[in-house]
Amino acid sequence: MPSDKSNSIKIYNSLTGKKEPFKTITKGYVGMYVCGPTVYSNVHLGNLRTFISFDTIYRYLNHIGMKIRYVRNITDVGHMVEDSTEDRISEKARVEKIAPMEVVQKYTNDFHDTLKKFNLIPPSIEPTAQGHLIEQIELIKNMMDKKLAYEKNGSVYFDVMEYNKSNEYGILSRRNVEDLIHNTRKLDGQSDKKNPQDFALWKKAEPQHIMKWQSPWSLGFPGWHLECTAMSSKYLGEQFDIHGGGMDLKFPHHECEIAQANACFNTSPANYWMHANMLTLNGSKMSKSTGNSILPNEIISGDNKMLSKEFSPSVIRFFMMQAHYRSILDLSNDALLASEKGYHKLMDAVENLENLDTSSKTDFDVKGWVNNCYDAMNDDFNTPILIAKIFDVVKFINLVKAEKAEINKNDLKQVKTKLNEFVFDVLGLDKIKSNTSDDKIKSVVEILIELRDKARNDKDFELSDKIRDDLKNAGIILNDNNGKTDFTIN
Amino acid sequence: MPSDKSNSIKIYNSLTGKKEPFKTITKGYVGMYVCGPTVYSNVHLGNLRTFISFDTIYRYLNHIGMKIRYVRNITDVGHMVEDSTEDRISEKARVEKIAPMEVVQKYTNDFHDTLKKFNLIPPSIEPTAQGHLIEQIELIKNMMDKKLAYEKNGSVYFDVMEYNKSNEYGILSRRNVEDLIHNTRKLDGQSDKKNPQDFALWKKAEPQHIMKWQSPWSLGFPGWHLECTAMSSKYLGEQFDIHGGGMDLKFPHHECEIAQANACFNTSPANYWMHANMLTLNGSKMSKSTGNSILPNEIISGDNKMLSKEFSPSVIRFFMMQAHYRSILDLSNDALLASEKGYHKLMDAVENLENLDTSSKTDFDVKGWVNNCYDAMNDDFNTPILIAKIFDVVKFINLVKAEKAEINKNDLKQVKTKLNEFVFDVLGLDKIKSNTSDDKIKSVVEILIELRDKARNDKDFELSDKIRDDLKNAGIILNDNNGKTDFTIN
Lengths: 490, 490
Known about the structure:
Two copies of one chain form a homodimer. Chain A has 16 helices and 15 strands. With 490 residues, chain A is α/β, with parallel strands linked by helices. Chain A has three domains: 3-276, HUPs (Rossmann fold); 280-426, Isoleucyl-tRNA Synthetase, Domain 1, CATH 1.10.730; 437-489, no CATH class. A four-stranded parallel β-sheet of chain A has the order 4-3-9-10. In chain A, strands 5-6-7-8 form a four-stranded antiparallel β-sheet. The longest helix of chain A has 21 residues, at 437-457. Chain A is elongated and about 100 Å long. The two termini of chain A are 48 Å apart. Chains A and B meet through helix 3, helix 4, helix 15 and helix 16 of A and helix 3, helix 4, helix 15 and helix 16 of B.
């Protein structure tokens, strides 16, 4: 693990709009917070892309020897349905006729199961919003004491205009408060707010609302933005290194987090803000209502009308890694087929590497290649460049295999080590043997069929019968059909 | 699903010490709460047995068509180390030099992974103690208002003597308060308590303690017993059907839960208390300090010094099902080997059932057999009796296969349906093919090795070399050693 690599990482910081050298608060240690899912439905493919992107970043930072505390939350309360006063989980509970916490459990399980299939490493801490209500209430008291939040009819709101007097609301999304007021006034019907851009820190619950807790202001529930401030500050400190999430969270969610942290702790929470871009499907935004939508499990099972076949989680992950996390990525049948081909080519090379013959010299700049790989990842975690570099060595491996190039023992060892590290540890791909057990059985049985054909030609029926009977005892039945033999496995 | 079966279930109720007809509060619905793990270490084999026992009960109630809300908690705060004032999770965090919530995450992940291997169905709701602090604080206020709890130096205790004036502390464990006082006084050094048998509802945290929250009494943390009262009442109501857990939780944990519920809601929480018995290892209690201890994963991997080989989760589960949940179960190498044999015999019968020939009559009382199976489970979920009944039909299936008995088409269908339901849906066993792909490859390669040996004896080196080369191309390398040939699969 070349720990000096950590000195040359550059990260595109959404807060400044620039690629900056990555300097951590404590040398060698990284605190990273990523906004997790709201567990009211099966995990969305676009969200999955975001989590895979940050998993790869987590893996790379680990690989170069940094110590990371990676916090990714579960939102199990407070995320409101757009244009409504209903919590997303409460709404789903009403529709599915189960308790809100049963909704939470069902979709938390789905989230974990899906991420496991895609080989994501669990975060160091996975806190829930409901598990941090006292912390959220304490933050609200803090902001009220500073007159940056006000109570109205049992609900508490963040006072954006007041905050903006000494801070800059809109710093991340580069929005102007005056414009925001102008743009949002018409849509807003919540008259409890002093200004339409104010956002809820605590909401008084309607009497029929199940998810509600005692607070100094009312029986209610916290606002969505507050949980991340409570949990990131609790587990990473008031100021930490990286805050990540999907592009759609930049405004208002992350903007509000910055405002809350400045209000509570007089500091911007994260030094580096990272945003993963959108995933589109066949050139258009995914949307359930238009039908242009597909779930991760539907791609894996092939149970969908969009794709010609099923694709393994590793192929899907490889496909995602072929785009940079800050680029829009379009998923289509052709793109997945191409990725599948590339993925198998890569896996074949990894396997071929195990049986290469060595010689006294090497026709490849191994040291330069290793540096290129690190440079790619150090440049804002550029996985498509890394993959291009990986295919340079794949090409070389194939030349050596075809005896058109040479490699010496030490270099072979180095290529093996680094290729495996980048492919499995960093990109998080799964090894599938291109030749599975079933393929192997097939190959071996074919050898026996050939021997049996020869025995039959030689009229050695003792041998041909023996082969058939031995195979039958092993559970493999030969079927002779018009001079050709195939077989079935019981 | 014969829903009338739900009318004849009897449950041994630890509260009354009697087997009683199972009457649910709402017909057709069951509320079940089971005390989950404290996530400060890898899940213990004894605890696993408890969770498998209640999983089987959950599966059976589901099978007969009841609607169950099954709540199993995660204790992530408040469970104290014996004879100390340190929380188990805090202690582990200190030892492992990570944050308490990293301890929680690590062992929650281990718990979920292990339970998945053993085919447990996730509960409907899996709440955490940290996720219900406000609820716990509200219960404490309730008990203080009733003078059944008192504050001292920032901590709050339940007043057992006061409670005992109008209630019966010790009702579950059949202990007498006077005896308890006599037995515990010497050991107790916590002078804040009025009486030694009083238990903590809230503990003021030491300054260095990380896990602490704001409350009306101090910056502190809740007592261990309180979380279960908070979560069971929240998700199942103040009174519900079944409360389960390991025998070791009967006192003081469940006794305290009963006292808290009576104090808060004027009702005993559960109508049926069920306790799963201990698991011993080679005749003695498991204990890390004496070395008489083994983890579930060590049995599966074979990485241990106690057992002669590895055992699959299904074999271990089958072994556990062969004892009644209220009996002590002793795990040993011989016992596991015997279970493995029985398990394979059962799986062979399930497989043979698919290829049985039918005739016009049946030499077996299928209807009576089905009833016997239900009777076994209705009798306090007696899985060993169920397994004995299942082996009656296994014996019969083997007779039919050997053409020594007959079965007609309808009865075969019924046996298939019910055997599969009991084995897979109720007992929760996994189907493994008795002959795996690897076994098959081995058998087929052995045929080729035999042919090659013959070719070499016949001096037909062309053939023997061809077999070796063909196998190599299929990824199978032959190794000749002192006249014997084995092989490795790449």
